[in-house]
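Researcher: Here's a chain I'd like modeled. Treat it as a single chain, no partners, no ligands.
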Amino acid sequence: MTQLNFSHKDFTSDKLSIIQKLTNAYKIWHEFLPHFPKNSRYTLGSKIDSLFIETIKCIIIAKYLNPKEKIAHLEKASLGLDLLKFFLQLSWEIKALDNKKYIALSEKIEEIGKMIGGWIGKTKKLLEKTPANK
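Model: Modeled as a single isolated chain. Structure tokens:
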């Protein structure tokens, strides 16, 4: 396994914006969670919380890996984001989240999804150009 290098300067790259946006979305979610209906807070609310944390973890780990190893973590983050969208929509449908809260989170998640998709695409193109992969 590759050793991760968490130096301060590593957080100044273009990938920081994904981490920042995902962290900001999580902070918004974290403000909503205490107001989540009690009968869903420890099931659906907890699931959403866990997905946010797992997705953030995958993005941070991907940041420090070589392109070949990075893809798996980015795809896991993308799947986590898709699951987040699903469970947020379900929360809205059962009225655990009101329209305003649902829209606030959904717009951010959608933007982050596009960014992760772009990062996956760039990484795959880089792998295709690498002589070892030809």
